[in-house]
Amino acid sequence: MEIRVHFQKDLKVSLGFKRADQVKGAKTAINFSYFSPGSPSTPVGLHYADGQFFGQQKGHQWHFFTLAGKDGKVYCEHMPFGVPAYNTPDWALAGGPLLVLNGKKVNIAADEWNKGGADVLSRRARVAVGLKDPWAYLVYVKEGEMSCPELADFFVRIGCDQAIAGDGGGSASMVFDKFKVARRQVPAVVYATAPALYKVGIDAGHGGVDPGAVAGNVKEKDLNLKISASMIQFMAGLTKAAPVPLYLSDVDTPLAAICDLANKTKCDVFVSHHNNASGSPRPGTGREYYTVSANGKRLAQSIEKYMAVASPLRFRGFKSERFKVLVDTAMPAVLIEHSFVDNVQDMQIIGDPMYLGAIGLACALGVEDYFK
Question: In sequence order, which residues have a C-beta less than 8 Å from that of residue 152 and are 6 or more positions away?
Fold first, then answer.
């Protein structure tokens, strides 16, 4: 899997048959829409940009949904009769199948798609785009890696509100500085000239039947989710990094699966949120960081630089412990213990929504600082 994250406002479209590596100045480029090979090849479905059409000027029975952009926002829209006059986009490309809508997996009409040759249940090479404002997640999966339903599961897991698949097989293309698959000329290329954002893997520790540390009615897993969500919220204001939520739900997910997804998506850093418990009559207090690498410690130091301003809790230091999420991830990683759930004073502070916002912002700023 290759995944490139860009701000939605930075995506552009180039119409006219070309390979994805022939768009000048592109930092990332993918094909997206379908076409009918032949002599000459013809676009299938809607291809529209900057007031111009390429090929058919209407929808297609298998391509009623499009990937579209307007005023810096990218979205999926149903366009069975072509570009709508009431809300004309800046660009629109027919694609499909639709994978995610309103944050939920779509039930794909596989039989109908397969009639059109899309073969959506096979694990064939394919491109897809997931959307969560303000980010766009551009994905390429190689032959044998994921089917369309599996891609939908992936986009739901990382928190996308919408996602749509594009062309597959030998036409599936992605190009950036360290990767190039562009075998065929395609009728439209989605690209960005701005640099891709660094990918920040975010893990809310514990979950499901595993509550983590517990004290009275306080469950660690609930705090971890709130802190992770706060960090993601504030990452929308960053300029260099974007979140890849690896575990942000209250369900049982093995640590091995979280590490595997971090590695598969090639996250640039990994941040795991936790809260502590001392289990003694004299509970501990404060926050501490665990790492196993020099760059992991540098990441922790960057976060602490801002946490020291945001948090009145005691700083307990940088420590080393071979936790699975630290040793089985291939990127700089940090596990943060934000507080002690069995300390009444800690809980009075961390239970305040304003404080959760402050430490979420501190974590986001710390990650941005790390990439300077």
Answer: 99, 100, 105, 106, 108, 163
Q: Which amino acid is at 198?
A: Y
Residue 207 shares a structural domain with residue 87: no
Q: Which of 316, 267, 318, 323 is nearest to 297 (CA)?
A: 318
* In a shared domain, residues 225 and 84: no
Shared-domain flag, residues 30 and 171: yes
- Whole-number pLDDT of residue 318: 98
**Bridge partners (DSSP) listed for residue 35:** 43
Q: Is 243 helix (H, G, I), strand (E, B) or coil?
A: strand
- The answer to whether 34 touches 94, Cβ cutoff 8 Å, is yes
Burial class (CB in 10 A: 0-12, 13-18, 19+), 38: exposed
Q: Is the pLDDT of residue 62 over 60?
A: no
Start-to-end Cα distance in the chain: 26
Question: Taking every pair of C-alpha atoms in the chain, what is the biggest distance, in angstroms?
Answer: 80
Q: Cis peptide before 40, with omega less than 30 degrees from 0?
A: yes
Task: Domain of residue 23: give its range.
Answer: 2-192
Say if pTM beats, i.e. exceeds, 0.90: yes
Q: What is the dihedral of CA 265, 269, 270, 271, to 10 degrees?
A: -140
